């Protein structure tokens, strides 16, 4: 459990550094801050994804836990879309930002320590990571890129050719074919990947300058809805799917715990890159990161 606390400590500390640097004017606002997100979107995060997936065991990708989590993800996104259509009446990009915030979980810097020290097995996380990057991310990015006169085809192409998606697919191919990437090539990729999380978290912290979480306005209810869906509804949906599929013991526990992970910083990075739904994504990431540990403690006590 100490390593889980360490994971939370890393997140909050780096966010705090970004906030302090923004307060002191070291990180500027607007375009200056968004450079962090663009570097992460186009270079460092794809490097992290590739290096993680390329060295993983593909035999775990067909785990029933992965299918349960994927089903819970899609169901939770659908629930948000239904609520949004009935209550918020937002455009497609903004709705997609909220739907992703309600279901796209942190499988890297929170998922790995939690899988190791709460579930007891890290093999559940990488398949979920590949599922999110290679299957879910194209839809999310296509939705965020929709509107503004863009052709539907252009949005789909943008989703399928996003750097993280291509990196996940390339990493999977390398892993599945047992290719060995020479160290002079892999080492720089790993170094770049190591910068991904700090860049995203510092930009996240800098975005908090001069603003408050859950301010009154059109984004407040979508944020609260996405937060509730992420921390409460998605784990319940995962439990229902897993139970219906006959999962028991550690498989059931792993599926529900993964579903309760906080919203991924990548969701904020996507919205910042496309300049849509940033507040909903930022506030949902913030709230779910704080509240996910109590939620997981409840799950651990019940299961």
Distance between the termini: 17 Å
Count of helical segments? 14
Helix coverage percent: over 70%
The major sheet is characterized as: none
The ordered H/E elements are: HHHHHHHHHHHHHH
The total beta strand count reads 0
Mean pLDDT: 85
Report the C-alpha radius of gyration, rounded.
Answer: 18 Å
Helix and strand composition category = mainly alpha
What quaternary form is this?
single chain
Poorly predicted segments: none
List the helices and strands and how they pair.
Layout: H1 2-23, H2 31-54, H3 64-88, H4 92-101, H5 111-119, H6 125-145, H7 152-160, H8 163-176, H9 183-194, H10 196-207, H11 220-244, H12 249-259, H13 265-274, H14 278-302
Helix pairs in contact: 1-5, 1-10, 2-8, 2-9, 2-10, 2-13, 3-4, 3-11, 3-12, 4-6, 4-11, 4-14, 5-12, 6-7, 6-8, 10-13, 11-12, 11-14, 13-14
Membrane topology: Multi-pass membrane protein
Subcellular location: Cell membrane
Pfam families: Mem_trans
List the main descriptive attributes of the protein structure presented here.
single chain; 303 residues; mainly alpha; 76% helix; 0% strand; membrane; Na+/solute_symporter_sf; transmembrane helix; AEC family transporter; cell membrane
Architecture overview:
This protein has one domain (57-177, 210-302). 76% of the residues lie in helices and 0% in strands. The chain contains 14 helices and no strands. α1 (2-23) crosses α10.
Quick gist of this model?
The chain is mainly α and 303 residues long. The chain has one domain (57-177, 210-302). It is built from 14 helices and no strands.
């Amino acid at each position: 459990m100490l390593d889980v606390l360490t994971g939370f400590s890393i997140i909050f500390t780096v966010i705090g550094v970004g906030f302090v640097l923004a307060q002191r004017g070291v990180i500027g606002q607007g375009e200056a801050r968004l450079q962090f997100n663009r570097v992460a979107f186009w270079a460092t995060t794809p490097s992290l994804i590739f290096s993680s997936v390329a060295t993983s065991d593909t035999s775990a990708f067909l785990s029933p836990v992965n299918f349960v989590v994927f089903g819970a993800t899609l169901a939770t996104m659908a629930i948000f879309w239904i609520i949004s259509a009935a209550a918020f009446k937002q455009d497609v990009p903004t709705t997609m930002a909220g739907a992703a915030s309600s279901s796209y979980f942190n499988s890297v810097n929170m998922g790995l320590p939690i899988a190791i020290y709460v579930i007891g097995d890290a093999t559940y996380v990488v398949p979920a990571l590949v599922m999110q990057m290679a299957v879910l991310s194209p839809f999310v990015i296509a939705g965020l890129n929709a509107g503004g006169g863009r052709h539907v085809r252009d949005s789909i192409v943008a989703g399928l050719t996003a750097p993280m998606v291509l990196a996940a697919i390339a990493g999977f191919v390398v892993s599945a074919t047992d290719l060995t990437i020479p160290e002079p090539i892999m080492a720089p990729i790993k170094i770049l990947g190591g910068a991904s999380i700090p860049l995203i978290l510092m930009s996240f912290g800098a975005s908090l300058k001069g603003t408050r979480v859950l301010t009154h306005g059109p984004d407040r209810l979508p944020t609260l809805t996405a937060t509730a869906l992420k921390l409460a509804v998605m784990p319940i949906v995962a439990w229902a799917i897993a139970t219906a599929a006959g999962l028991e013991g550690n498989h059931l526990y792993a599926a529900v715990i993964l579903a309760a992970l906080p919203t991924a910083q990548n969701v904020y990075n996507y919205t910042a890159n496309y300049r849509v739904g940033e507040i909903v994504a930022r506030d949902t990431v913030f709230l779910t990161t704080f509240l996910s540990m109590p939620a997981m403690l409840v799950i651990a006590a019940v299961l």
